[in-house]
Amino acid sequence: MTQKNPQPVDLSKARLCVIRNRGSGKEDDQVVRTITEGLQPFVAEFDLRQTDEGSQLLDMARQAVDDGFDIIVAAGGDGTQSAVAGALAGSDATMGVLPGGTFNYFARDLGVGETMEDAIQTLRNGVAKQVDVGQIENLIFLNNVSLGIYPHILKTRESIYRRWGRSRIAAYWSVLVALRRLRHPMNLTARVEGESKSYSTALAFVARSAYQLESFGLEGADAIRDGNFAVLIAKARKPVPLLRSALRLTIGLSAKDSDFDLIITDEINIETYKPQQLIAHDGEKTRLASPFHLKVWHDALTVLVPAGGENKTKD
Predict the structure, then answer these.
(1) Fewest Cβ atoms nearer than 10 Å: which of 18, 95, 149, 271?
(2) Distance CA 128, CA 45 (A)
């Protein structure tokens, strides 16, 4: 992520609001205590706002901006971080990150700490930096946008979770079920700086997380740190070759010349032959009208990161 010089933050004068996507289970009260005890004594004003509905997060964060909070902290997984960032991008408010999901790509990209306690220390001792975000139409995303098979994997996973409950086995099974249902590749045209190229593919993946690409063994992380998208378009069009690409990806063997075409750009238009397309963005699903305009919104978001430069972002 492209960033300007860090700025110190006087937490003792700050009005701070935590927006938390509340989880279930015995540890819920302990998480609230950890957040409250870790932050409340160090700020001028503290508020904790919680919800069980992910759809409410964006409006809650917008309300916190309207209420004049200086620092708005997103406590939850990547979907929570993305929703709060969507409200804060372009505003004067500073975002804090408390990871609470499965993958926490945004938190890992920033280097804020992989545990709640470490991330709280970053909030108390960190500095404010401006970072880039991705934008597709009016939606803000932090990690990725995808078209093709992946949104349908998410849709299938939700159905399987409702029937069998959440588990790693259920998550893996949803991938196999979605791939089995893949009948036809997606036809799309990508336009960059006036040049167009058409593809027939099962998956188009627009990445904004350098950490995620590196964890997948894919190229493009340095380009992301330089302020671009890494757009990966799968060469596989049918289930068996796509499964082979997925297997290669899990053991770090994927490369642009074998499994994916790679486009490096900070702005791209993607047109599909369907008038509307289901897209996935940071683990959420939305149906949008084609064509889609995606761009990197440079320096859109101010985030608290470690003061010593331990974060994975690039100056």
Answers:
(1) 271
(2) 19
- The alpha carbon torsion through 209, 215, 217, 221 (nearest 10 deg) reads 30
Contact between residue 111 and residue 306 where contact means Cβ atoms under 8 Å apart:
yes
Give per-residue pLDDT as tens, 204-255.
999 999 999 998 888 899 999 999 999 999 887 776 777 666 656 555 566 6
Residue 14 in tokens: 């700050």
For helices 116-125 and 28-39, angle between their N-to-C axes, nearest 10 degrees? 20
Residue with tokens 């999901």: 101
Residue length of the chain: 315
Q: Which domains does the chain have, with CATH numbers?
A: 7-140+299-305 (3.40.50.10330), 145-281 (2.60.200.40)
Q: What is the pTM of this model?
A: 0.88
Q: Which residues contact 216 (CB under 8 A, 6 or more apart)?
A: 249, 252, 254
Nearest 10 degrees: CA dihedral of 95, 104, 154, 147?
70
CA distance 133 to 89: 8
| Tokens at 63, concatenated | 């309300």
d(CA 111, CA 116): 13
Query: Quick one: which of 118, 102, 107 has its CA closest to 142?
Result: 107
* Secondary structure of residue 280 in the 3-state scheme: strand
Task: Give pLDDT, residue 29.
Answer: 87
Higher-confidence position of 174 and 263: 263
Q: Name which of 304, 311, 298, 299 is nearest 71 in CA terms.
A: 304
pLDDT at 252: 55
Please state, in angstroms and rounded to a whole number, the distance separating the CA atoms of residues 6 and 179.
45
